[in-house]
């Protein structure tokens, strides 16, 4: 079953900002660029660094601790030291509110 979970009003999330949300006991990093929204697991699988403290570069989020890069379209690891990927989440804007698609694993 798919649920859409409201995170916050779009007006409260400026361009260029990243945030961490706790959704059903899972930390999720959300990023806003000029052109898009992106969401992935917040914890880097390599050393549990908060990816919401990282930055976006060429369609990837870069881990702030060891520089591992994860593709924001697929979640795949693009560089070491990460050997596994992160879960990617779909986002939408509904009635000026950012919503995250939740699917059970």
Characterize the structure shown.
- Helices cover 0% and strands 44% of the residues.
- It has 105 residues and is mainly beta.
- It has one domain: Rieske Iron-sulfur Protein.
- Strand 2 (18-23) and strand 3 form a beta hairpin.
Name the shape in a single word.
globular
What ranges have pLDDT less than 50 throughout 5 or more consecutive residues? none
Task: Specify the helix fraction band.
Answer: under 10%
- The averaged pLDDT comes out at 95
What amount of the residues lies in strands?
Answer: 35-45%
Q: Spell out the helices and strands N to C.
A: EEEEEEEEEE
| Main β-sheet description | 4 strands, antiparallel
Number of helices: 0
| Structural class by secondary-structure content | mainly beta
Q: Look at the structure and name the CATH superfamily.
A: Rieske [2Fe-2S] iron-sulphur domain
CATH class: Mainly Beta
Brief characterization of the structure:
With 105 residues, the protein is an all-beta fold. The chain is 0% helix and 44% strand. A 4-stranded antiparallel beta sheet has the order 2-3-4-8, with no helix packed on it.
Question: Any descriptors?
Answer:
single chain, Rieske Iron-sulfur Protein, 105 residues, three-stranded antiparallel sheet, mainly beta, 10 strands, globular
Helices and strands in order, then pairings?
Blueprint: E1 3-9, E2 18-23, E3 26-32, E4 37-41, E5 55-57, E6 60-62, E7 69-71, E8 88-89, E9 91-94, E10 97-102
């Amino acid at each position: 079953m798919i649920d859409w979970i409201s995170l916050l009003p779009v007006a409260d999330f400026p361009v260029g900002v990243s945030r961490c949300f706790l959704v059903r006991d899972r930390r999720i990093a959300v990023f806003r660029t000029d052109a898009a929204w992106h969401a992935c697991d917040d914890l880097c699988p390599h050393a549990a660094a908060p990816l919401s403290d990282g930055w976006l570069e060429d369609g990837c989020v870069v881990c702030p601790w060891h520089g591992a890069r994860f593709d924001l379209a697929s979640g795949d690891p693009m560089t070491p030291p990460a050997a596994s990927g992160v879960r990617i989440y779909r986002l939408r804007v509904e009635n000026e509110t950012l919503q995250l698609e939740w699917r059970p694993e």
